[in-house]
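User: For documentation purposes, I need each entry recorded in a consistent format: the amino acid sequence on its own, followed directly by the corresponding structure tokens. There are two entries in this batch. Please keep commentary to a minimum and don't merge the entries.

Assistant: Recorded as requested. Entry 1:
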Amino acid sequence: MSPALLEKRMLVLIDSDFVWLIALLTWVPFRILTMIWRQIKKQHTSLSGELLLNMFFFYLVALMGVTIFPIPLGIPCYGDYFHANFIPFKSILGSLHHSWYMVALRNIGGNLVLLAPFGFLLPMIRKDVNTLGKVVATGFLLSLSIELVQLMLPGRAADVDDLILNTLGLLFGFLAFKLLGLLQGLIPKRQSSSDT
């Protein structure tokens, strides 16, 4: 294709607003119908469980919005439009040695924080995924999936250091979950009036 034709190609940008719109239009009616169905079947609906589930879902939508979107369609794929780093700690060391501190804060801090909520919320949502090994394995697979998708998207960078930092961040989130459980165990439970 000639350069003149490439310049005339239409660029379509699918951004995170589109993802939020689709998520809201599908998730909210689905949850409302689920709650109605539970009422019809006389099943108990836990408000805290429902809040946690919605928080987890919208966290995952935000995660997709930050890591995958915007997706440019119609961009010619030539040059070094695809970026990948397969050398462990190369990006981390490069960020630490950068002259502007915000580069390290954004790259290292951002990747640490990115999956911390996943490590915290997943064992609250799924009681069968509440051990360190299960949470780390699930989070690692999520982070690996994100990096593989980014590897295929123009303008995105796949980085093994992101995988390392994301996994470390979800480990911190899981440890915060365990710490919360320990703190809740230290709080004395109120006795009901019938116990006295």
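Entry 2:
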Amino acid sequence: MPLNIVIAASNRLFGEGLAAILRADPNSRFRVIDVSQCLITAVSLHQQAHVILLDTAAFEVACAGTGTDPSLTSVGFPGVLTAIVGENEPVTAQTGCLFLSADSSADTFREALSSAVYFKSQGVNGRCLNKPRSQLITPREQEILDLVTEGLGNKEIAARLGVQTHTIKNHISHLLEKLHMQDRVQLAVYNHNHRHN
């Protein structure tokens, strides 16, 4: 089931660009419900959304409108992830909001957004990932971990999943970092030992 996304961006071209990146997801994980320059329009659609995606300017407008509490998630959107996209993280961002760098590649942006929604559904706050690292593996990372355990190389995994080889390399790097491991053999042994736990 695709994630419903509402985008509010002060710059129409930026908002349409974000929408195009999400719509181009090879796994069809996202459905853009609306792209607007009007924060009120975006907020009015929150009941249909899994994510309200704002650029930093729209976020600052939202903060000004909520007084001393800039966290949109505390203004009454339970179950909806508020994500902010920009070059620099707003100083007013609170723990309920996710910041995504505008310098990310399209693949990295989509993976980060998908992972954040997954973590939120598991009760993990975007900035307070306080569960053991082994519990922070996304479904996509688990899929890749299973293929590594089968002995497949990056090109074979990429071909099987229909993604670029560099995307698989990024996932492997993230897995090694998350699990504090040195190589693929350690990942495979870890996955074999923990697969049914």
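Summary note for entry 2:
Residues 66-76, 124-134 have pLDDT under 50 and may be disordered.
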